[in-house]
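Hi R.,

Here's the chain you asked about this morning:
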Amino acid sequence: MVWTAPDVKPVDEPFIADERTMLVAFLDVHRDYLLQKCAGLTGAQLARQPVSPSNLSLLGLIRHMAEVERAWFRRRVRGSDLPMLYSRPDNDDADFTELDPERAEAEYATLLRERDLAREAVVDVGLDDRFVHTRWGEMSLRWVFHHMICEYAQHNGHADLIREAIDGVRS
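And the predicted structure, written out as tokens:
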């Protein structure tokens, strides 16, 4: 089966708003940008790793960001006892290395679901509310929003290069 990622309409962030609205909006802009970079490609194209020697692919980024959404918002902020989606003790890079182009549609749906669940998980959490990270100690939801914006921004830069290498499309 050939699957093509659907087109995603860009979201505009507000120019004037309270801090939380701004953080959520900027995160959503970056979330959607990754999906835009994947639009119009088949599962095989999404799974391509065209920038040697890197194992990065658009499908790997889809899987990685689903993992990151789950880890930060539900596992850490909410303290939910959820398994990791892809990484395992024997392969913490499985989100990038264990790709199946035939599962591209399912992986895309997983990212969308994890994004929705992440939003729901923190709807009643204040920006100054804290949780304890096992390695780094006390953190706030505000920090998580900033971290997630940076995480997406970094990987969206990767996505730009990967997409151009696949079919020449530039942003």
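Helices lie at 19-38, 43-47, 58-77, 94-97, 104-121, 141-167.

Let me know if you need anything else.
M.
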